[in-house]
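Recap slide: Fe2OG dioxygenase domain-containing protein, sequence and predicted structure.
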Amino acid sequence: MSESTTTSSRESDGIVQGLRTALENKAGLHKSWTTGVATLPESETTLYYEHQDGTIKSLKLGSVTSAQAEDLGQACSPATFGLNQRDVLDESYRKAGKLDVGKFSWLFNPSGRGDFTTQLASGLFPWASLEKGIRFELYKLNVYGAIKHYPWRGISAYRRTNDIGEGSFFKAHQDTPRSGDMFGSLVCLLPIAHEGGDLLLRHCGHDFTFDGQALLHNAPSTSIAWIAFFSDVEHEVTPVTAGHRVTITFNLYYDPQIATPIYHAPSSAAMLEHPFKSALQRVIENPAAIKAHPILGFGLQHAYPVSSVLRHHSLLDLKGADMILIQILRSFGIKYNFFLLYRDEKHKDESPFRILSQSCYDGDTLDADQAPVEYLLKNGGFIVWDRDPKGVEENPYLQDWYYHYKYGLECGDQYEDLPVEWVVEPSEENLKRSVAAAYGNEPGLGYFYHQICVVALLDPDFDSRGLINQDVDAMERLQKTDLLQCIENLNESLEKIYDIRLRAKVLEAVKVCNEVKWYSENTSIPLFD
Ligand SMILES: O=C(O)CCC(=O)C(=O)O
Ligand SMILES: [Fe+2]
């Protein structure tokens, strides 16, 4: 290697490293959760609930006795959860009581309190200005703890309550995405005495313990402690050892019909500008740096619920740190697009390349003899070379395979590739099954979390025209086939579903598919936009 090459590669490493450091959230620039305490006005302190025999009871938050809390627990049915799309009751994984919406009523309305929404939005999106409002959907009431009587288990179980009394918990899971615009969950801890039952959260190497009891310690008795977090954050409730831990949860959605929350710039950081913005500015002001790094890639920090293909990116509802990354790219007019990244399962350890694709590959839908890599590459995907191949020289079989992708097909055509440099190393999708989260708080509703990456075109003169044209055609073909099949399946299911809430969900899904179909027919979807 000549000296000049060594120097320039060291410089280029420095540039990408500088961008990487500026994006890292070590300094606590982004959190995937935010907490607070809200003191309820008198009108919001009454909680009504219905027993399974139809009796309506109420309690006053701030002065709930343990007998009242126990009565609330008795009104509950056992909480189930989602395991690979099935609704499962398994008390070794989740042990709690639940009341569905319609079985309880509470006048606390987060959307009606501008200060509450502002606090929540400033905590979850400290650097980004939201372009949509937040809709809060009341979801469930959960009772964890000293439930002494389980009517659904019968009187004999009542006598054997030692195993099911205290000690409710919910092991690690992600909250199931209900649609593409759901981004988070809000858990409100009611002021009812208990011990244990911390909510532990983990995301991207950070963790947090939400001890709501401690937050309520010095607050007025009619206060609730709350935590909002992005729904792909892994979380669990530790065992409750005494009393009753009662929470009411809301699902959080972006909603363009609702006014955007007032933006509060981060007060803790004494910086006016996000460090990544300044770092990127320095790079794009340097023509040599742009030429050396025409295309940059970023693995997103959050997982996103997508159905069969990545929708046009203006429709992808981003969370926290990912939203600010995109806002910064947009502020410089840098073109970008979203992709999934796959590695050949068969040659996983040796494979020196990954495949960028906008298709959510579902191993179950392909014939057994159809090679996933070929499928993705022939449907608008392309190769990103990222390491030296291992063992190719010694292994003729691997050599054939490697040369096939490196130097082209028998007919002389070559697979398309892109020189992407990863500022943030992305997670890979699983080619065997792209359905990510196994444990959810609900069975899946057709949306699955995917690890998405962003590819940004730093050099506007970089020759990507051929790729763009070819890709648009392939993408459109793929989208249309997938969509038409999807709409047909949904319409077929509709005929068999009589439950009103389920029908509404399926109708919602049909609406989304039609929306995407409209996009694919009425707009050209460029690779970089
Ligand atoms: O009660 C809590 O703190 C969280 C409950 C939860 O994670 C859920 O219901 O999905
Ligand atoms: Fe949860």
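The chain has a mean pLDDT of 79.
The longest strand covers residues 240-255.
(End of recap.)
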